[in-house]
Amino acid sequence: MKILFTASECVPFCKTGGLADVVGALAPVLAEKGHDVRVMLPLYSAVPHDYVKEMQHVLDFEVELGWRKQYCGIEALVRDGVTYYFIDNKYYFGRSYIYGMGGDEHERYAFFCRAILNALPLLQYQPEIVHTHDWQTGMISALLKIQYQHLPFYAEMKTVYTIHNLQYQGIFGIPEVQDVLSLDNSVFTDDKLECYGCANYMKAGLVYADEITTVSPSYAEEIQTSYYGERMDGLLRARRQQLSGVLNGIDIKEYDPEHDPLIPARYTVEDMSGKAVCKEELQKELGLNVNPDTPIISIISRLSNQKGLDLIDRVIGEIMEEDLQLVVLGLGDAKYVDLFSWAEQRYPGKVAARFKMDGALAHRIYAGSDLFLMPSQFEPCGLSQMIALRYGTLPVVRETGGLRDTVLSYNEANNAGNGFSFFNYNAHDMLYTLRRALYFYRSQKDTWALLQRRGMTGDYSWMHSAEVYLSLYRDMLGKQEAPAEEEKPAVEEIVAETPAVEKAAPAPVKKPRACKPKAEGEAPAKKPKASKPKAKAKKEE
Ligand code: GLC
């Protein structure tokens, strides 16, 4: 299949969040399975020079944006079997930031979407699937349907829109958007591009894409409710037949304690001694008291409300009364920078906070910590909890979105689980769960080792989810399914199948499937697999 990914960020070229990890990891996996996969990205000035040097200039042309004409260069490089096309325009992308500060986001990403669509015939490249990600590329489906699909070149293209985070929607004034995209009033109605008096790029994707996916089965359900729906729940309910949740994977080569060159000592399930070295080195590096028995709880996160940090704020005093150490790495809102800077001063030797993006330090923290705290208010998928599991660092999470689909709270009654979780968005529920985890850390060493083992042997790769995407694409194109490959179970299946199995879960041959939320009048849809034993686990706790 000819598959085009369009996104505003992608590792290793530019990253502000998980979107970049997902696009950067999924594209090569699809290519490895024999598909023609290409990715279109903005050529930000943040793209490292080494990659820019590798790029070939393919062509350039002018893009019309209302009354303006803008230069657009297409620079290309091939990596891991994927062709990356970079949209070059210094005025829009040659800035010191990726998002947000110039007051012209509507124009930058209108340019990006328009440039992508106009580049295709010039490149003589006719993708069958155009897979768009988040609000920055939401307008592609709308423009395609409204302005391009009467042309034979574009007529057969199908679009997928993936929601990585429904909170960020790209909301702008209607006249400004009309001005740059030449869209008339007839499409600014509430069933199309208008949204509470504004133009909304996320909504454009949700209305016009042929299929909508989001990054976990639970989030696909949640966003159809008003609590999680960010004012899009009605639309998402109306489009539920086209909405499915496909769990993200992580790059299991990058995050591998057995071979990770970025950590002080490597370790495996059989020999965990390297993890103790990583812990000691981390304590030294961050100026924490060096003590192998003091549990380290880490947070690696965007410092935003989404991540549940106000729960920590509420009970920080009670958390720090425990014999533990807290490590924080991330960038974000000033109020959380203040909170953790204050804590670092207040609890010397017990708290270390670093406010930056530092991939190598992140590896050392995942490896050197005992617990990973992620009490998110909502979490479309979340990648860090899976990375933590892989490093034998047990997650403490709130049961929401992808956290619910990947972490099953330990249940003494049947020995199931791979971490600890709580349901209510409540600081003391979090504190209680943290204390419960600390109890197992201190007093139930066998159980702790069992949970670590489960975490480290789970399958967080892209193999399963990549098949789910491929089967979605095939369905959209009316193609036959290729013969099923041998597959390992996906992480949500492992979570569901954890009971008392001490070894890595077996590898049954499974048909790929997406989790479709149920339609009205249908028999109740199967709940996302991970949630079943969880409900049980809760009752029996
Ligand atoms: C966003 C979401 C996160 C998800 C990531 C990749 O950053 O907040 O939950 O894992 O996108 O899909």
List keywords for this structure.
Rossmann fold, alpha/beta, 20 helices, nine-stranded mixed beta sheet, 541 residues, 18 strands, binds alpha-D-glucopyranose
3D structure, described in words:
It is a single chain. This protein is an alpha/beta fold and 541 residues long. It folds into two domains: 226 residues, Glycogen Phosphorylase B (Rossmann fold), CATH 3.40.50.2000; 185 residues, 3-Layer(aba) Sandwich (Rossmann fold), CATH 3.40.50.2000. The protein is 38% helix and 17% strand. The strands form three sheets. Strands 3-4-5-2-1-6-7-11-12 form a nine-stranded mixed beta sheet, sandwiched between helices. The protein has a six-stranded parallel beta sheet with strand order 15-14-13-16-17-18, sandwiched between helices. The termini are far apart. The structure holds alpha-D-glucopyranose.
